[in-house]
Amino acid sequence: MSDFFNGQGKIAYEGPDSDTPLAFRHYNRDEIVLGKRMEDHLRFAIAYWHSFAWEGGDPFGGRTFERPWFEGGMEAAQHKADVAFEMFSLLGVPYFCFHDADVRPEGESFSQSKRRLEAITDIFEQKIAQTGVKLLWGTANLFSNRRFMAGAATNPDPDVFAYAAATIKANMDVTHRLGGENYVLWGGREGYETLLNTHMSQELDQMGRMLSMVVDYKHKIGFKGAILVEPKPQEPTKHQYDFDVATVYGFLKRYGLEDEVKVNIEVGHAILAGHTFEHEVATAAALGIFGSIDMNRNDYQSGWDTDQFPNSVPEVALAYYHILKAGGFATGGTNFDAKLRRQSIDPIDLLHGHIGAMDVCARGLKAAAAIIEDGTYDAYIDDRYAGWKTPEAQAMLNGERSLDEIAARVEREGLDPQPRSGRQEYLENLINRFV
Ligand code: XUL
Ligand code: CO
Known about the structure:
By secondary structure, the chain is α/β, with parallel strands linked by helices. The chain is 46% helix and 11% strand. Bound molecules: D-xylulose and cobalt (II) ion.
């Protein structure tokens, strides 16, 4: 045990009336919700990068956090791993997620970076065995180093494409070795700063090729997890190709990957794309590519990807409603892609952030389950579309009627459809009863 958390014991569930700051009020992992343990529904994960690698900088100032592992090589990385797993255990989260760059210092060559990643993987292997904390997903950081400034897969230089491919392979290998349940690709520089210097069709083909190779390699090594693409419209680049879920779906269709790749949807990215989070989840579910979520929130005024911990139960509840209706998580989970504010410099702030976020998600899940158990809302939706169950409507939908046949019927039967209320205010009031 390190003394980073000052002897803090495991965070316990104390119920809604508890006034203990470091306790769960709503996240009760063994509580049964819709026939399943809360832990198995939510599948929480902690993001290594925000909690242990991020230094508290912003565009106007550098490091505000003082962490004993910020200076130094592999020994510091080991110390960081000790504290990370200590925090996973204190909070009782079942999963974590990481990029190569979060866990090992960059080497002087590709081979040295890879050897360091493998050495940390040896440590993770032991810690996973000791603690039972598992890997939700691994990923490669293809955006921080200056070699990737003009993109990784979409770089105009084929050697950068090759370097990115080798980096992804190394990260897929360690993810596979650790029993990771998914592999994520977030294209942090896969887009452009200016269209003036960009050959878009060339870059899209490069990105399609890279993703196809990732899928081939997954099958080659027998990785059973899902390959997930994480959409984001901009930041760091002005425009990113994986703009939102619908754009990613179009891309997957174009390269024949729609049955192989799913999406990891992040709250803040949905907001940046001008959508609600539940819109993105519902879109992915409708298109059959829902995979996993990065849970956080943006500051609604600043317009940046602020990666704050979630704190709005009504918003989270609507997202979990759509996740539950889609059958819940298969390989995915709820990864807290969230970081402290830069003034929250103490270790205890990491606990406050995650405890609050886990409680908000637990309340959201319970609210979503209550909406489903009550049934009034689902019955309303069923009723709104009930007309489509008639044989004639089914024939139209199944392609058994042509445009001219339908037109003939409209005249023959003298159809004169009457508008019905959409009942938005009623539905808002109904949902508010549960959140
Ligand atoms: C960046 C972001 C990443 C991905 C993983 O906005 O969300 O942390 O989740 O690369
Ligand atoms: Co993310």
